[in-house]
Amino acid sequence: MRTDERTLAYGGGWLDRAGALRADPEWISSTLSRPDTTLLPLWRDRSLVSARHEPVRLAVTDAAGVLAAADETVFLGLDDGAAVFAVDLSGRAEEEAVRLVGAAAAADVRSLVGRLGPAAAAVQAYARGLLHWHRQQRFCGTCGAAAGSAFGGHARSCAGAGCGRLLFPRIEPAVIVLVEAPGTPGRCLLARHRGAPEGAYSTLAGFVEVGESLEDAVRREMAEEAGVTVAGLAYQGSQAWPFPAGLMVGFRATAESDQVRVDGDELLEARWFTRDELRERMAAGRPLGRADSIDHHLLGSWLADGD
């Protein structure tokens, strides 16, 4: 059973990213001055929200002061033909940023998920990830010269003489895996990660390394962290996770045996859980992972499959 991407937070954003148009600086400039253009203001990776805890959207015609105060303005896309830009007010004090946009507070994007649908959360996360990258990519990694925004904010261009390298936002893929034991009854492997409280278990995950396929990363991570040899695996779905630049790729895997040996570094302990044991944990108030994470959906779909 594959995870249904329509149910995952941060996926299904409705914007047309207009890739064929955003490389034209004149088009970007004219679009930014259209009366139907809107701005999404953020401050240091946090959305600026109203008293109802909804992200503020500003008409560009009412936001001259916000544009003047912005450290970065990036084009996100077209919403039914109307342009949407994200503006970064990170260079201002929080109180000033909140006042400038008429907001009530600054809030973590992930705290908005229960109030926003997946597509609306996707746009906020998209804005957060792109603006975060701009703040971290001020200089060229090849020659050290300053780099300026290009392609409507979807690249940066090195200003160094003889260099001119184009820099693009980096995506960091990671695999997240629900491992099943062989045989019956059905059991899945959950682990307690370093820093997690006693009794807090989750699925196993890890970043993809250079020269690895996603499947290679699953096999390596399971062997390194939990001493588990994977006999078979199947793709389940993916999730944008721009916190700051992740892409979570979900798998379900079957272990060759139920022997487990944690690394003692990233994982402190790991154990097999039956479906009944997971249901008991839920009844006791222990959620199946973060509500906005693919981890939650991997576990939920495994439970729904039954023994």
Task: Please tell me about this protein's structure.
This protein is an alpha+beta fold. Strands 1, 2, 3, 4, 5 and 6 form a six-stranded mixed β-sheet that branches. Strands 10, 11, 12, 13, 14 and 15 form a six-stranded mixed β-sheet that branches. Strands 7-8-9 form a three-stranded antiparallel β-sheet, with no helix packed on it. The two termini are 14 Å apart. Residues 1-5 have low confidence and may be disordered. It has helices at residues 25-32, 64-69, 94-101, 118-136, 214-226, 275-283, 294-305, and strands at residues 38-43, 46-49, 58-59, 72-79, 82-88, 105-108, 147-150, 155-158, 166-167, 172-180, 187-193, 204-207, 230-241, 246-255, 267-274. The chain contains seven helices and 15 strands. A hairpin with a 4-residue loop joins strand 13 and strand 14.
Q: Give the H and E element order.
A: HEEEHEEHEHEEEEEEHEEEHH
| CATH homology superfamily of the largest domain | Nucleoside Triphosphate Pyrophosphohydrolase
Distance, first to last CA: 14 Å
Radius of gyration equals 22 Å
In CATH, the topology of the largest domain is named: Nucleoside Triphosphate Pyrophosphohydrolase
> Could you report the average pLDDT, rounded to the nearest whole number?
93
Strand content: 25-35%
What sort of overall outline do the alpha carbons produce when their principal axes are compared? globular
DSSP strand tally: 15
Q: What is the number of helices?
A: 7
Largest sheet: 6 strands, mixed
Helix share, percent: 10-25%
- Name the structural class: alpha+beta
Proper CATH architecture of the largest domain: Alpha-Beta Complex
